[in-house]
Amino acid sequence: MSIKLTSRQVGDVTVVDAAGRITLGEGSSALRDMLRDMVAKGQKKILLNLSEVSYIDSSGIGELVSGFTTVTNQGGALKLLGLTKRVKDLLQITKLYTVFDVHDDEASAVRSFA
Amino acid sequence: MDRDARGETTEVDTFLDSTLESVDRAEELVVEAAKKVGIEEDDALSLGMAVRECAVNAVVHGNRYNLNKKVHLTIGRTTAQLVIRIADEGEGFELDELPDPLAEENLLRHSGRGIFIIRAFTDEFAVRRISPSGTEVTLMKNVAS
After folding, report:
1. Domains (range + CATH), chain A
2. Which residues are CB-contacts of B145 (< 8 A; sequence separation ≥ 6)?
3. Phi and psi (nearest 5°) for B30?
4. Å from A33 to nearest chain B CA?
5. What CATH class has B9-142?
6. Do B110 and A62 touch (CB under 8 A)?
7. Which of B20, B45, B107 is facing A25, going by the closest CB pair?
């Protein structure tokens, strides 16, 4: 399974629910396209829900980082929600865990954008 | 099964096309082999991730998706280790010239984490040039005795 991405609005925060694998090819390009599209539409508060993402490779990490810098450079914020242990471990060993604002609970994550 | 001069038995020896499907296949074969020799599920999946990164390097950076070039995957084992070799037909790279992905100035770079991930999830890692052209990367994972 590659990745399935759906978005929903919670107040002024756009929550992107991702499910599957974010790996080189279809998975990482789908995430890149979706984040770019959101930034182009002026959506600057983005919460990426990764609780159903079982696997990310270095290409997927690259897309997370690119999304983060793109949104931040536009004056917005990209935050992460619900990391699985494998994804959390990967972000920790690559020293990116402290770069991202990571949340376990959606309600508090949404409030943190205020 | 016969052992070679290194005391290694070969479990898998296959040539894969230079496609992303081959990356998935290499990962599957290694995870399957790792579980078969008793490597725990979590470590097997991490090893699979290391192999994935290595196979991506071979397909994308080494063979540049050239379907005339193959990726040679072998999976062998000694009494102590699972030994995976992934060879491409590319121009090669210098390990020492790769930027450190953990350096402050590189943290937000889009790429450059593959080799770091390979090292993180294997017990030994080696790279050598092969003749007439190409690079062979060897990943070793300790097997509980």
Report:
1. 3-106 (3.30.750.24)
2. B79, B80
3. -75, -40
4. 15
5. alpha beta
6. yes
7. B20
Residue ranges per domain, chain B?
9-142
Which residue out of B27, B56, B122 would a mutagenesis test of the A interface target, given it has the greatest number of A Cβ atoms within 10 Å?
A: B56
Give the Cα separation of B52 and A28 in Å (integer). 15
- Whole-angstrom distance between the N-terminal and C-terminal Cα of chain B? 19
Q: Residue B108 is nearest to which of A57, A59, A69, comparing CB atoms?
A: A69
CA–CA separation, A62 and A12 (whole Å): 26
Predicted pLDDT of residue B95: 85
Q: What's the rounded Cα separation, in Å, for the pair B55 and B16?
A: 10
Sheet containing A45-56: order of strands: A3-10, A13-22, A45-56, A77-81, A102-103
pLDDT tens for each residue of B104-125:
999 999 999 999 999 999 999 9
CA end-to-end distance (rounded Å), chain A: 35
Give the global pTM: 0.89
Residues of A at the B interface (Cβ-Cβ below 8 Å)? Answer: 23-25, 55, 57-59, 61-63, 65-66, 68-69, 86, 90, 93-96, 99
